[in-house]
Automatic annotation (TrEMBL):
KW Repeat (keyword) present: yes
Pfam families per the UniProt record, alphabetical: LRR_6
Gene: Lrrc42
Protein species of origin: Leptocoma aspasia
InterPro entries for this protein: Leu-rich_rpt (IPR001611), LRR_dom_sf (IPR032675), LRRC42 (IPR039631)
Keyword Magnesium: no
Gene3D superfamilies named among the record's database cross-references: Ribonuclease Inhibitor
Name of protein: Leucine-rich repeat-containing protein 42
Amino acid sequence: QSWSRGMSYCLHSESHLDTGPIYVRENGKLHMVNQGAGSVQNVTPKARPFSLFSRSFSVELCMNREDDRARRQRTDHFIFTYTKEGNLRYSAKSLFSLVLAYISDNVDHIDSLIGFPEQIAEKLFSAAEARQKFTEPVTGLRALQKFTEAYGSLVLCSLCLRNRYLVISEKLEEIKSFRELTCLDLSCCKLGDEHELLEHLTKEALSSVKRLLLKDNSLSDAGLRRMTAPVRVLKKGLENLLVLDLSCNPKITDVGIGYLLSFKKLNCLDISGTGLKDVDAVIKRLQMQIGLVHSKVPLKEFDHSNCKTEGWAEQTVLQWEQAVMEAMKPQDNLRSRVAALHFYGKTHRIEEVVNRTLVEPETKTFGNLQFYKENVENCHLPLKKEVAGSHELKNNKKRALAEQERERTSKQKHLCLTVEDWDLLNTY
């Protein structure tokens, strides 16, 4: 029989292995194969100890290679290092690091972080940022909102989006989620009067902005009227604004400058490159109503190189920019098509649009219209300072501070009002 010949061949070829008795079922009956002669005997199997694996058998544990995420989660619990002798050593991670990694992987499911310790929240934010959780379209926004609601300026106190109009268009909702910003640089973004981000500037979430740079944004008088309406009517919005840059917006005229008079706390203003008709009248008006004096030298407050992004989300903004640049890479293929059109004698007008970048306009020296308040320190200093006279400048500042303190104390002595004086003031 074919099965008996094949079985006997198998037995003789592997006779050196202790395979034990072999049973074959034929016609519903169980037969035992005799290892010596290869014959078949119809006997009942005897109970004998049987080992599943031989002594030389070895096992290798293989993870499911398709599920990389599950494998990473299993091996992340250990830290593998090498000793001086070259031996592999592993140690278990701390419970805090394991919990931090788990929460950062699921950071979008957090209900609230209000009242949570700031030190632990910063580590959690960094762990989620390293996993690029805030770059995801929907879950990233939800996670970022939980941090900004609880920690405000700690997440981001200064945001520089200068010349980053693509980041603004792609991550507008994320940018609007930042609260308690003190500095916002939107220079050279060509936003216009109707942009949603400019409307967001009037909201209560950005009432803390003290430094606002809107250079070269195609703004007009209508945009300034809309931006200053909460301050003029409700005394809210950008009421704490100290520095404002509106340069290189030629559609802003004398009428638009009139809306800026509601910013009573304004210390520095730049309206160079605007469409003013009567410059002398505007200079006198700013000086008379809000105390701003025309500066003959460029002010350091409008040096855009000093503005930068600061806070926990500094790297997050850089990740957004890198993601936008990666998305723009396929457009490089347009150059070959444009070159082909030129080769065949055709002109392509889109080439200008593709290769064009927003170039920051330069204002001429004679058109410098920067203003400052004389009684405010560190605002009217020129952009370029001499190093040799730095000690003398510090001494002058100390003397000025001492004189101001003396004047303030003397005024307090002379301005002590009696009860009758207060009753008289309350009648007005």
